[in-house]
Amino acid sequence: MPDSAVIAIELSAVVVAMESATPTVLLTHSTDRCRAPMLPAGSFDPRHHRTFELGLRDRVARQTGLTLDYVEQLYTFGDQDRLQPDAPGEITRHISIGHLGLVSYQQSLRDDHTVWTSWYDHLPWEDYRHGRPAMIDMIIAPALSRWTAASPDEATREARRQRAQLAFGFDGARWVDTRVLERFELLYEAGLASEAQRHDDVEVVISLPGEPLMSDHRRILATAMDRLRGKLRYRPVIFDLLPEHFTLSQLQLTIEAIIGCRLHKQNFRRALDRTGLVVPTGAVDTTTGGRPAERFRFCREQWRQQMAPGVQTPLAHSEYQ
């Protein structure tokens, strides 16, 4: 019997909302406790979905009841055996078209199996807001050193060493917050991500702190984190995660939560003033516990007229440099 070839197209979404100073993502938990949670996802139906985005919005709305404020396509994920090995005589390529979706608050959910969870629960080494995470030097660095030392030849050893140095800021290199996907793929290749056990050619030597997701959904999450961290600097997407009226401290804390680093308060506000992206509303917030804080709003008309960039992110500490 000839081999059969099937292409299955899935639409997946990393839906992000802020809860206080925590970036949260939407996950669906299976009734099977042995299965890892997953991103909202569903099959693309060309009979009912005119575009991928409309299909994605429809899937998310049906599964969760959420209406997405902002959606953009991330990447097409189609590695062989990304779900499970094929049955003998059958070749099925499972392709997932990943999307980033933003909502301005944690909307109530329709399904008890769908929950909001911090994205740092799954990629904890990405949060530098309280300093360099201890796990980087205590767990990740030694494990990557052993992986590098086990290289089959000198050229591979040097390439691995340089990748680790640039990805995690070892040996004086600068930590770059927009290398999320690069870091996760390095950990995956080194056998430090539990999801790698799906592949026979990757030995899982240690499972790092950080909750795994089904299939390659943690890789899709890393891609979304990368995209959002980079994009907020040249497009004002950060305001899709904020209420209509907000304080400057609330804006700064939201940006810090997304990029995982602290900002220099005075330099941040000076840079923000130059963009003209926010204007005062005339109202104040009296719930801050101290001096009432002025409320601002996103000046969308200013951005439309001048195509102003996103928000600048002057960092607070030299350790990021």
Q: What does this protein structure show overall?
A:
This is NAD regulator. It holds the Pfam family WHD_NrtR. InterPro entries: NMN_biosyn, NUDIX_hydrolase-like_dom_sf, WH-like_DNA-bd_sf, WH_DNA-bd_sf, WHD_NrtR. The structure is a single chain. The chain is an alpha+beta fold. The protein has 3 domains: 4-121, Nucleoside Triphosphate Pyrophosphohydrolase (Alpha-Beta Complex), CATH 3.90.79; 124-210, no CATH class; 234-316, Winged helix-like DNA-binding domain superfamily/Winged helix DNA-binding domain (Arc Repressor Mutant, subunit A, Orthogonal Bundle). The protein contains 8 helices and 9 strands. A hairpin with a 2-residue loop joins strand 1 (4-19) and strand 2. The longest helix has 16 residues, at 134-149. The chain is globular, with a radius of gyration of 21 Å.
List keywords for this structure.
Nucleoside Triphosphate Pyrophosphohydrolase, 3 domains, 8 helices, alpha+beta, 21% strand, Arc Repressor Mutant, subunit A, 6-stranded mixed sheet, 31% helix, single chain, 321 residues
